[in-house]
C-alpha cells in the first residue's frame, strides 16, 4: 500500500505574515489527519521560521529547490545541508518553471537529486510535457526521457526514497486539469518505466504525484486512480480552505 502525499508548492507567493498565518491555520485544521502525508513548500527565506511553526505537527516542510554542491562560491544558492538544517524533509526538484525559466536540464536535476538523497531528504522530482509536445503525440517520449535523465544512477534503495511528480506543463496554473484518465495513463507508463529500470517490486512502491490545477473539487477523482498517489498543488495550496479540502479528499480515498 502506498501512502498518499499532498504537497503544497507555494512558488514565489505570500509574504511573511500570510505564510505564518496559513501554516498556523493548517496545523490546527489538519491535526486529526493521520492517513495522509502532508507537506508545504514555502519560499526559502521563510523556511526557518515556518519550520519552527510546524514543529511537532503532522505537516512536513519542503524547499522548492536546493543546489547540488555542498558549499562554496555559488552566489544565490542554498545547499541541501542548509535546507535540512532548518527542518526540511522534502525538496522539489526540476519543476517545469525551473526547467523553462532557469534553464535546468535533466543532468542538473540529476546532480541535485543525488545531493538531496545524500542529505537524507525526500526529493520530489517533476517531469511533464508541454502542450506542443502533447499535441505532437510526444507525451510518453518526453516524460520517459526526462524521467530516465533525472533519475540516472539511482540504486533501488534511492529510488524508493524518491517521489516523482507528473506535471503536464499545460495544466500548471492554467485551470486546465488533465482528466483522471489522461493523468492515469502517464502514471501507469512511468510505473512501467520504473519496472524496466529497477524492478516490479520497486516500481510498485514509488510514490507518483500528479500536479497541474489540482483543486478541492477535482482532487478526489484524480486521487482515486490506481497509480496516482497524491498531488503537488500550486495555486490551491495558498489558501487554507482549498488545501485543506484536497488533504481531506486524499484522506477519504480508499484504494
Ligand atoms: P498549479 O501548480 O496547481 O497552480 O497548477 C502546480 C505546480 O506547479 O506544482
Using brief descriptors, characterize the structure shown.
binds 2-phosphoglycolic acid; 8-stranded parallel beta barrel; 12 helices
Can you describe this structure?
- This protein is α/β, with parallel strands linked by helices.
- It has one domain: Aldolase class I (TIM Barrel), CATH 3.20.20.
- Helices cover 44% and strands 15% of the residues.
- The chain has helices spanning 16-29, 47-54, 80-85, 96-102, 106-118, 131-135, 139-150, 156-160, 180-197, 200-205, 219-223, 240-252, and strands spanning 5-9, 37-41, 59-63, 88-93, 122-127, 163-166, 208-211, 230-233.
- α1 (16-29) packs parallel to α2 (47-54), α5 crosses α7 and α7 packs across α9.
- It is globular and about 45 Å long.
- The N and C termini lie close together (9 Å).
- The chain binds 2-phosphoglycolic acid (PGA).
- Residues 9, 167, 172-173, 211-214, 232-236 line the site of 2-phosphoglycolic acid.
Amino acid at each position: 500500500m502506498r501512502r498518499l502525499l499532498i504537497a503544497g508548492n507555494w512558488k514565489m507567493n505570500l509574504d511573511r505574515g500570510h505564510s505564518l498565518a496559513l501554516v498556523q491555520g493548517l496545523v490546527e485544521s489538519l491535526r486529526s489527519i493521520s492517513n495522509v502525508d502532508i507537506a508545504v513548500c514555502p519560499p526559502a527565506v521563510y523556511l526557518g521560521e515556518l519550520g519552527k511553526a510546524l514543529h511537532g505537527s503532522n505537516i512536513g516542510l519542503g524547499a522548492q529547490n536546493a543546489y547540488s554542491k555542498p558549499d562554496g562560491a555559488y552566489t544565490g544558492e542554498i545547499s541541501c545541508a542548509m535546507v535540512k538544517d532548518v527542518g526540511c524533509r522534502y525538496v522539489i526538484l526540476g519543476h517545469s518553471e525551473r526547467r523553462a525559466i532557469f534553464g535546468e536540464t535533466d543532468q542538473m536535476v540529476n546532480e541535485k537529486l543525488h545531493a538531496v538523497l545524500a542529505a537524507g531528504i525526500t526529493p520530489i522530482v517533476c517531469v511533464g510535457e508541454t502542450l506542443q509536445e502533447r499535441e505532437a503525440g510526444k507525451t510518453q517520449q518526453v516524460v520517459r526521457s526526462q524521467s530516465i535523465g533525472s533519475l540516472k544512477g539511482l540504486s533501488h534503495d534511492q529510488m524508493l526514497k524518491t517521489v516523482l511528480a507528473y506535471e503536464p506543463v499545460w495544466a500548471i496554473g492554467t485551470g486546465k486539469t488533465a482528466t483522471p484518465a489522461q493523468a492515469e495513463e502517464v502514471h501507469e507508463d512511468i510505473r512501467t518505466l520504473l519496472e524496466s529500470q529497477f524492478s516490479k517490486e520497486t516500481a510498485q512502491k514509488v510514490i507518483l504525484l500528479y500536479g497541474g490545477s489540482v483543486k478541492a473539487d477535482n482532487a478526489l477523482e484524480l486521487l482515486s486512480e490506481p497509480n496516482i498517489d497524491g498531488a503537488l498543488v500550486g495555486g490551491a495550496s495558498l489558501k487554507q480552505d482549498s488545501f485543506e479540502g484536497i488533504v481531506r479528499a486524499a484522506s477519504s480515498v480508499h484504494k
